[in-house]
Amino acid sequence: RRRAWPTGQPQQPLSKTLPRPPSSSVSIGSGPGSWQQLRTCASQRIQCRLVELDRTEPPLRSETPPASSLPLPRPRSRPSLTLANLLLEAPGGGRSGAMGLFDRLPPMDHLRSEKMCLVQLIFPAESARLAVTYLGELGLLQFKDLNEDKSPFQRIFVNQVKRCAEMNRKLKFFSDQINKAGVKSSVRPALQPEIDLEELEAKLGEHEHELLEMNTNSGTLRQTYNELLEFKLVLSKAGSILAASQNHATPADHELDEHIYDKEVDDGNGYLLEQGIHQGASESGVRFVSGIILKSKALAFERMLFRTTRGNMFFNEASAGEPVMDPSSGEEVEKTVFVVFFSGEQAKAKILRICASFGANCYPVPEEIVKQRQIFREVSSRLSDLEVTLDAGTQHRNKALESVGSQLWRWILMVKKEKAVYDTLNMLNFDVTKKCLVGEGWCPIFAKSQIEDVLQRATLHSNSQVGIIFHEMDTIDSPPTYFRTDKFTNAFQEIVDAYGVGRYEEINPAVYSVITFPFLFAVMFGDWGHGICLLLGALFLILREKKLSSQKLDSFTEMAFGGRYVILLMALFSIYCGLIYNEFFSVPFHIFGKSAYACRENSCSDAYTAGLVKVRDPYPFGVDPSWRGSRSELPFLNSLKMKMSILMGVSQMNLGILLSYFDAKFHKNALDIRYQFIPQLIFLNSLFGYLSLLILIKWCTGSKADLYHVMIYMFLDPAGDLGENQLFWGQKELQILLLLLALVAVPWMLFPKPFILKKLHKERFQGHSYRFLGTSEMDPDSEPDSARSRHDDFNFGEVFVHQMIHSIEFVLGAVSNTASYLRLWALSLAHSELSTVFYEKLLLFAWGYDSLIFKLVGLIVFAFATAFILLGMESLSAFLHALRLHWVEFMNKFYHGDGYKFKPFSFATLADDEE
């Protein structure tokens, strides 16, 4: 159908900063650019939807598409369903409504990933930036990089990305300065007026220039202040050395010296100093150089002076006392004041060069005490002035940092968003006219209507003359995997994704791991006392959820907080299994009634040797507490837990094989059902399913048959007589049949599938299979580059080797995986025995003493051993073993895990990273 489009204003070319054109009243879809987009769509043989909006009315979703175009799928609405609604909504109600009950139940969101589609977006130049910004706020579209062959510096918006990186550097500089100054910055500032990126860039430049200037001035003043402090210290120490040698000084002079200078003087050489000073330089030729040096270099400095002057010098030093701020590095170091006496100009030049090489700071100290006092007073006065100046500068700098810190978080987030927008725009391509940007991306089917609304809003707000074209594309690429999770299921999904992200629409093991993972953990950790401790920890994390989510946590606490609901279920199942094992910190309790056994005599003296007598019905729930401490306790519990482990393992592996059937059925893969699911199910249950059946029969009948003997001789002597190991009639014939089925299942898995695939490939691509001819030039099969016309090269050798490896792995894995589930028994036994050792050897041993101190010490040691070893190390061990059972023994039956995760362009991830 043809439609008349009104003529609008011409399109503006895309500038580097994507300017917004002036407001216009032309409706979306008008202007010559729309015809250009239609031609582009026609050239690419894609179906386009043009959306027309009325600016005076609320934006519509879409208008009715042309008859030749296919309708876009809409997301399923998921209202809250009740049984009454389902029955009433059915035609005729009553019986027909009840029959359609299960058909209208909402689907399981987590069993398979969300349905995805590849979409193409054609942005006009003036609305591209705003549209990408709105899509980032929505966070439901993952863009594909259409410029993978280009380096970052060859992309369109490289200059904008550089500007954002420069602003990010300035913001990082502000953050470092705020942290260094100890100024508190607001994490969530008050609402401030919106600021444009250009204004922000100018403001950041002004703030940086101001801070750099203040830092430079402050650094210069601080260096001068530290140099004056050193000068004052040298005047004090060196002046006291010189003053101590003046035996002819007046009493008043000595009194002033005591108030100004310290008395740390080496008195052994007073005569030499007195002679050199009072004779004067012109008479004796003795001169001196004073300064300050690092204390660690003083000894090497003295030796170097002695060797250079060949001993014609006298070195005197005095410790500076407290650490001194070094003028060069600004760090507090320990230093020593020195005075070097020498004779001659050449010696002076050598000494000054050595001082410079050792980093010593030399300061001029006059010989006359009067001049020393005068300089001392001047230095003290200058230090006081500098202190006032530095304090004023620090206050001014802190105020400037506070004004920046109040908006720092908002600016950082704004720059990160802007950089993310331009990084996304760099993933798009210009069309041939250089007036539109073309992008591709993945989005969930349910999000298409939301994306359309966002694009319409972007068109309105940018005053664009041409609407944004949004349509679905045909592709052979595998879509990303996306599950909508909440705070409860997210941790279980992360556990599965740590093994590997599932393929698109592959069955999600996390649905079953929600129950099986904490349950298998509890089988190994079963103690309802320890389970209560875990439960208290999980409840603490859950009840303080809001507070902890807003804080910055360390790595361990963050990991525990993220898995708080996993810990909750692990604790609940541990309490349940602990009640079955009847262990509370290894101590049994008569919770569900009295024991079924009693002593033969009232004294119970022969209970350990002769055993107990059954006097009533079996204990109603869990292990009878009378087994505790008995001679047969360990053999009984070992047999029970070992058989339970095999039953759980075989059940979970069968569940994995059944899930492979549902997966193959969903993807309509009959080959996998016939030549993978059926033989695998037969092989596993012919051997270990039969073993599980024998275990159940033995439990129910109380037979004394040796199951080890039965399984071994099932292979060694299938036709032999079972004797006392026979559990039911026809057991020998059933074992022969099961053994034959297991042998047949191996070639059934190995050979048919590769040869059938080879035959199907030949028929499909050599003209032996027929298909309908295309009725139009838009038929997808007629396109040379369409998804249906392309296929990968079939390599029979690779397919056969892959099938052989898979079959061998399953056959060997059926044995090894079943044996691997025995870790449930081993770790449960280890946990129980370790808990018993701590209880008996620590708590009961300390409780046997009459001293209160011994009892307290024993209780404290028992509590720490329980907390750090049983609740810490043992829980971690059980967690890792449960993880391995799911990753290897369970998930390898049906889960490929070679997909890739859906990572939409979203600003929410930027905010989370910043937090």
Task: Give a structural overview.
Strands 1, 2, 9, 10 and 11 form a 5-stranded antiparallel β-sheet that branches. The chain has a 4-stranded antiparallel β-sheet with strand order 4-7-3-8, with helices on both faces. A two-stranded antiparallel sheet has the order 5-6. Strand 5 and strand 6 form a beta hairpin. By secondary structure, the chain is of the alpha+beta class. Helix 4 (128-138) packs across helix 11 (369-425), helix 11 (369-425) packs antiparallel against helix 28 and helix 20 (633-666) runs antiparallel to helix 26 (823-847). It is a multi-pass membrane protein. Essential component of the vacuolar proton pump (V-ATPase), a multimeric enzyme that catalyzes the translocation of protons across the membranes. Required for assembly and activity of the V-ATPase. InterPro entries: V-ATPase_116kDa_su, V-type_ATPase_116kDa_su_euka. This is V-type proton ATPase subunit a.
